[in-house]
């Protein structure tokens, strides 16, 4: 569970760390299933989850390797894998109830994925007990990557042991017809190798999918509800990569301030919202003419942000209260403490 890869000497950017040849990759393209089997899997997954067919095929490959026992080429690697996880599907009922408050979209998506994979397994008449199926499902979604152009899922034994860090990433991964390679991106000496597992703007995602707390979230998404306004998405206000707050500096992106201003004007039915919409559509990168509008509505936008922060604090405090009992470990309380303190710090700065 807590294994990683460490260096024992000084390395420079561009240094080649290791290469895993194609023959050692567990890939969805190496499936032994027939065409009719794959069609049955697609039917079982359903139209909403068919996009995860590559991950399903890797899961089947894992189960097949387990059944081979000592004859499996990957036996040493299989024996090194964890047998228990702290992802959403492995948590107890109380923990799952709290996670549905903290990360409803990710919890629902994971549940739908799991149900689709079970349906596809049944369509395939897979001879596998539910616990082994859940284990293989979790291995796939915590350790596999999509290889370019995106239609192949792979697990690279050894490479899959590199842990995540939001701000100390020091390796880059490439997966192609030649296998999987890792190259250093920054100078290091006697330290652990780290990857960025992606979508760091939603730290609750790491709780649900990977079962760990990201202790150093930086740019975290602002999830603002624009109701039925169809223009908000076109203006980029639903783009979580841009609608962010930095928890280190407590600064908001320009897109975030514009999104909050748009929300305030929209909720108050102000005519200025039409001008703002038109201006941002034609001049998405020109911010200078907006300074007067931001100044005019500064109290309202800061008030909206403060109310948003208070809602976050209340959510985490409510979950902390519920997490006083029936927790397997301190994972969820630690997450709530960390993020409550971040939003409380923002409130102090706004006041």
Short description:
With 351 residues, the protein is an alpha+beta fold.
Beta-strand residue percentage = 5-15%
Q: What's the gyration radius in Å?
A: 23 Å
Q: Cα distance, first to last residue?
A: 42 Å
Assembly type of the shown chains? single chain
> Please, what is the average pLDDT?
94
- Would you report the number of β strands? 13
Poorly predicted segments: none
Helicity range: 40-55%
Order of helices and strands: EEEHHHHHHEEEEEEEHEHEEHHHHH
Shape: globular
Class of secondary structure makeup: alpha+beta
Largest sheet: 3 strands, antiparallel
Number of helices: 13
Order of adjacent strands in the largest pleated sheet: 2-8-7
Detailed description of the structure:
With 351 residues, the protein is α+β, with helices and mostly antiparallel strands. The chain contains 13 helices and 13 strands. The strands form five sheets. The protein has a three-stranded antiparallel β-sheet with strand order 2-8-7, with no helix packed on it. A hairpin with a 4-residue loop joins strand 12 (244-246) and strand 13. Helix 1 (35-45) runs antiparallel to helix 5 (104-123), helix 2 packs across helix 6 and helix 12 runs antiparallel to helix 13. The longest helix has 25 residues, at 298-322. It is globular, with a radius of gyration of 23 Å.
Q: Could you outline the blueprint of secondary structure elements for this entry?
A:
Blueprint: E1 10-11, E2 16-20, E3 26-27, H1 35-45, H2 53-68, H3 75-80, H4 93-102, H5 104-123, H6 130-143, E4 145-147, E5 152-155, E6 163-164, E7 171-176, E8 179-184, E9 188-189, E10 194-195, H7 204-210, E11 219-221, H8 231-234, E12 244-246, E13 251-252, H9 254-267, H10 272-282, H11 291-296, H12 298-322, H13 331-350
Helix pairs in contact: 1-5, 2-6, 4-5, 4-12, 9-12, 12-13
